[in-house]
Design goal:
This protein is α/β, with parallel strands linked by helices and about 400 residues long. The chain contains 13 helices and 16 strands.
Amino acid sequence: MAEPFRILTLNSISKAGLVLLPAERYEVGKSLERPDAILVRSADLHKLDIPSSVRAVGRAGAGTNNIPLDAMSQRGVPVFNTPGANANAVKELVLAALLMAARNLLPAVRFVDGLKGGDEELHRLVEENKKHYAGIELPRRTLGIIGLGKIGSLVADAAIKLHMDVLGYDPEITVDAAWSLPSQVRRAHSVEEVLKNSEFVTVHVPLVTATRHLINSQRLSLMRHGAVLLNFARDEVVDAGAVVEALAAKRLRYYMCDFPAERLYRNPGVVALPHLGASTVEAEDNCAVMVVDQVRNYLEHGNIRNAVNFPDVVMERESADRVAIANANVPNMLGQISTAMAAAGLNIHNMLNKSKREMAYTLVDVDSPVNAGVIRELSAIKGVLSVRYLPA
């Protein structure tokens, strides 16, 4: 019987996912040596010497900024995430922040918390001061959404049901996301168009080089006087210094975010939450189930779904003997793989190859067992990053 796969968990992963790893095939723990895979939530893998035994990294969440993607790609290691698994949780938090801003709820709560006196005095103070916390209603107000993936689409749908006008922008929207987007969403052609024409703006983009400080001083200067900016994506998508300046100039009325920062601390126009976006029981369960399923399918069958650095490659088994090959996306790789297998007397029953930018991945089902010599020969091909033999 084959040795069990070893899964290192660097954060608390929901039991809803871990129970999907059968004990006879998997050993799971927080201090395992020579792990085959790592499951992680927020732990910073940039600071970790990731063992050479690791064949996959699974992130129970959407963002992967805490994982050294380039280094993993160079090793031929896919990094899985769970897009959409926590989308409803984030959507609900965005809606809560939207309502908090519209009705001035946080300053109102702070006012009441500071009151002193008996019921009569409290009543007098409330009646005298409640006008300072009067808010607005959301129908016919415009919500601008930058980023129309799963979360952005859900926020758009919820806002429309609140009778808001929705203006959306996403230059890289996928076909699936476009199909799921409510037809009432008006299309903007730039970030600037969204900022100029919205009373509320929410950002839902990943943090990459192109989106770092996407919302900066220049763009904030375009917003309507007294607008509200919401950031429940990633902290560095918005320039905190520019936000402080915009609040001081009354360009922004509120900055609602999920990322406390020193520059924002104790600013009355900032409502910062302690990174609660995916902190629901349901979201943690959904992420754990999804990432465990993906990592297990990869370890056992070589299939890849939702890897941020690899193409999706899913092939039903047609043979008990399968080889999985990760390689640089260069010419004649399939020819060299086929030649090496033919020279070893292996008949290829089925093959699937796909690429994603500089990475390529190939699954090959063959009609007979593959010996260690073939694996060494395939591994020696220039550009091959990793080779795994996966007998059923």
